[in-house]
Amino acid sequence: MISKKLLKNWLIVFVVLVVIDIVWHKVIFGSFLNEQFKGVAYFTGGEFFPLIQFIILGDILVSFGYAYLVSEMSRSSGKYILNGALFGLVVNGSYSIYDYALLPNWPAAVVIVDVLNGIVFGAVIGAVLQYLNKGFAKKEKSK
Question: Does residue 141 lie in a domain region?
Answer without folding.
Answer: no
